[in-house]
Amino acid sequence: MIAAANRKGYSNASVSAVIEEAGVSRPTFYDYFEHREACFVDTVKYVQGELMNVASTALDEAPGEMALEAAVTAIVAFATERPADARFLTKEALAGGPAALDARDAGIGEFARTIDKRLSSAPHGVEIPDVPLAAALGATYRMLALRLRRGEQSLAGLDERLCEWLRSYRTSATKQLWRVVKPLPLPEQSPYLMPPAMRPPTPLGPGRQKLSKHEITENHRERIMFATARAVQEDGYNAVTVARIMKLAGLDGRAFYRLFSDKQDAFTAIHELGFQYLMSGTAGAFFAGDSWPERMWEGLRAATQSIDDTPSFAHLGFVEAYAVGPVAIQRVEDSRVAFEIFLQEGYRDPDVLNPPPTRIALEATVSAIFEIVYRAARSSSTPETASLLGHLLHIALTPFIGPSASNAFLASKSAVPGGAPKPRRRAALPRSR
Known about the structure:
With about 425 residues, this protein is mainly α. The protein is about 65% helix and about 0% strand. Strands 1-2 form a two-stranded antiparallel ribbon. The chain starts with a helix and ends in a 21-residue tail after the last helix.
């Protein structure tokens, strides 16, 4: 399964492909696995178990306060020594559907709990990274997935750079605020939030003959795009069919194939629309701030509230893209690079640390933010990502200005654990049915 999925992707890692790689018969396959998905999920769990065995040894040998750095170093070493296994776990598992994602996330969660126990055993007063552990591990997985997908032959130095990034979050073990992701009171509604939230157009009524052919085509196109987003959120990309999309859109199959070649084409169109919407709102809010921390606050506040107002787009963009194929994966990577632009402004901040964060630190920061948004999108059909704004800002600001200044800024916004709650923003617009 590892060889078949790495070479052909999850969608093409059929039972036939697996038994050809394994050199066994089809009946032998079904002696062990009920279906392909069961084999795939068991393989995710197997590779995660192999990684945990390696990491456990590293954790046992490291001081408690170095547990997170030891774990990240072990993950990179595992990817160096067993690149095929690491590629399957860090990249291909993201394409395998809900059960595979559950296995991937559960493995990271178990890993994080193990690290948390080791950190809790650190001597009183020692400094340890105050960063969400699952987000740091997920960021490491994502950065490895990118490099292994590109076929990079050497990961030399990546572990040292990641550990340097983690050290920027070090604070006293008695003053930890951010190691566990817990929702905080929702911030006030951003005045820069783009109204209204994206919604599908109204189905055409009896008077549609008064519309031009172009207007009718655009109505059908947008209804299909929004139906694709809803279908993917509800069923997962792998399970979605054109028939299911057209039922939600209220159109027949002929309308679909006049406008899109297949479901991947429709996914790409709605992904692009959602990304443009998110980036426009984020950029508009970001440049309204005076200082760089204020800009990050405004940008991420608008971004998280936009995500919460359009949950199907969040699920489509942050959860399902890896299942679609290389084009969608490249779009995910492009969006990550686009969000790095907001961080790069931090180098101009008068309080930036010396030395400033490295290029790898920027990538790790955005990857950790993406991991948190991904988990929020998976956790609920109506996530409240804005309740995690403090965590996202802490991850973004700290490598540039240090934990003390970052916490002080967030405290001024009542966005730290225990801070005074602010009024809830307006409810998200209802999803069209």
